[in-house]
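User: Can you predict the 3D structure for this chain?
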Amino acid sequence: MLLDEYIQNFLIYLQTQRRYSERTVITYRKSLEKYLATLAGDNKKTAGNHSKAVGNNPNYAGNTPGNPSASQKIPTEAPSAPLETFTEMSVKNFVWDLKIRQKLAPTSICEHLAALKSFGKYLVRSKILQKNPAETIPMPKRPKRLVNILGQKDLAEEKFPELENPTLQQIRARLLLELIYGSGLRISECQNITWNSIDTHSKLVRVIGKGSKERIVPITDTLISWLEKFKVTEIEAGHSPTTAGFVFLSEDGKPYGIRTLRNDIHDLLRSIGWEGKASPHVLRHSFATHLLENGAEIMSVKEMLGHSNISTTQVYTHVNAERLKQAFKKTHPRA
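Assistant: Here is the predicted structure, written as structure tokens:
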């Protein structure tokens, strides 16, 4: 078997065994294709023709929704190579090429290298290789950046007054605000929320997160209030919400796209005068940071966010500490 065939099997494994989302599988696939192209000395062609292939090739996920095999296929334009070419030296050359010739940022290089490390680990577990060629390659150091968040005053309830005759889009935005800032959901998790996953009596919502992991998180009274308004407005708009159906259902009977939901949050945050980055993830960062600022236990925050590793959650403790330092410097006479 050639290297691209092993990659196809690896992608199938990620999607069917590890239950990775289609978006994650696509990310892995693109990184591995880039590595194959580097092996073939075909980066220039990849930069131009690969982008066209993504838009036109039916084998690419996103062009054939609902077809689980779509994200698993390597397009015929991708170069191939024998398995023996997957060596430590070839991975080092790949990282060098990304850094020196393509001038990618450390974060992007880490993403590509992580895909190769996972692929190598899969080959070892499958007893195809005895050693992972990418295992010892160090990850580039990423610059430390504090996550961008809104202050608690920025998100105070008085910033979001009652609306007279609100539109469907405005109600949808307020629902998203409560799910993300009120309960810590990712935007992709909001997209897939169904009516039967929300228990308004117990004030809980069941969320299917990354890797199809399920968690239960609290919801706010404000969310429950907006849900009722949203249901009425959806029906008036010609949508027909059902008990088991998606909450964010468009007129064609499918969930709203991620871009639509992102735009809802962007417009909402701009409407309250927020000039920083206006994205769903900023709201999620704010949710976690404000919980910790108000005394929540970090393990509880980890569970609500759906993090697998506590180190992912600990970034918010650093944010909190940095904010305290900045306040100290501004206000203390000896700072």
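The first strand starts at residue 198 and ends at 199. The longest helix spans residues 310-331.
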